[in-house]
Amino acid sequence: PDLSDVQVIIKTSFPGQAPQVVEDQVTYPMTTAMLSVPKAINVRGYSFFGDSFVYVIFEDGTDPYWARSRVLEYLSQVTSKLPPSARPELGPDATGVGWVYEYALVDRKNTHDLSQLRSLQDWFLKYELQTVQGVSEVATIGGMVKQYQVVLDPDSLRAYGLTLNKVKRAIQRGNQETGGSVVEMAEAEYMVRATGYIDELEDLRHIPLGMDERGTPIMLKDVAQIRLGPQLRRGVAELDGEGEVVGGVIIRRFGENALTTIEAVKEKLAELSESLPDGVEIVETYDRSALIKRAVKTLNGKLLEEFLVVALVCVIFLFHLRSSLVIILSLPIGIL
């Protein structure tokens, strides 16, 4: 049985901010607002670099989906008071013991780097596994998130009279698409579309920022280095001390059978493994089903022992078989 508290987690991303700033501008307003949520018995707030977590603990027996709806209702009242770049969202509809299965992506042939494995997990495996009945969330750990990085040169910006905001707006404008209606020619319609999404580094390098005194266009490559690189990491995932890997954690939805969910996830992973690139394997690193089966086996064994002991005592001392049957039958009913 799941004996954990009924809780709702609010995660708020506030990129680039120190823990004290996150505490003052996000965590404190959020926790004070959640204190008024009906049936909430405890509210805990935690502030980290760039992230805020608020845990709302409810009374035992509270319906978790009712609790989530009430938290969402009070969250809508405080969102307008948060900084514009703060983005709050509810955690998965799971409990504190919802972590039931974990796997790792391993490249046996060393032909894929960590960023490629991370992309495989985030854009393929994660979405497929979320379709499995009973899965609330698939969390990714380890690896590297690939980024297009623009490293600005302050001296070049000063020489051209450019600001960071102007460069930011230019990049945003240079990564857009728009439609141009249709053009009718020779009894046929042709859809007009302006393609402007960034597909490669060269597209970034040739984004115009303005013109210099001689009328020459200033490109992004003139004031910055453009490269591919990893997003800032706060941790790594390693497997058996053999090197870094990318992992996935399966979070079970509240009220779902853990054993059934794990078996369904295993079947899905076996199906998806056939679509993985050559050399990439899925390695199981944690499986709670073994613990569940051992617990059930132990319970069955102990229950059988209790049956025999109680029956023997009743028959010997009461000398009445029907009376012993009443006592024996009460044991499994009491456990259920």
Would you kindly provide a written description of the structure presented here, covering whatever features stand out?
It contains nine helices and 14 strands. The model has no long low-confidence stretch (mean pLDDT 90). The N and C termini lie close together (11 Å). A four-stranded antiparallel β-sheet has the order 2-3-1-4. A four-stranded antiparallel β-sheet has the order 6-13-5-14. α8 runs antiparallel to α9. Among the domains are: 91 residues, Multidrug efflux transporter AcrB pore domain (Alpha-Beta Plaits); 84 residues, Multidrug efflux transporter AcrB TolC docking domain, DN and DC subdomains, CATH 3.30.2090; 46 residues. It is of the alpha+beta class.
* Main CATH class of the domain at 1-91: Alpha Beta
Assigned CATH superfamily of the domain at 1-91: Multidrug efflux transporter AcrB pore domain
Shape, per Cα inertia axes: elongated
Helix content: 25-40%
Q: Kindly report the spatial arrangement of strands forming the biggest sheet.
A: 2-3-1-4
The H/E string reads EHEEHEEHEEHHEEHEEEEHEHH
Find the structural class using helix and strand composition.
Answer: alpha+beta
What distance lies between the first and last C-alpha atoms, to the nearest angstrom?
Answer: 11 Å
Tally of individual helices: 9
What Rg do the Cα atoms give? 29 Å
Look at the structure and give the mean pLDDT.
90
Main beta sheet: 4 strands, antiparallel
CATH architecture of the domain at 1-91: 2-Layer Sandwich
Unreliable runs: none
Report strand %: 25-35%
What is the fold named in CATH at topology level of the domain at 1-91? Alpha-Beta Plaits
Please tally the β strands and state the result.
Answer: 14
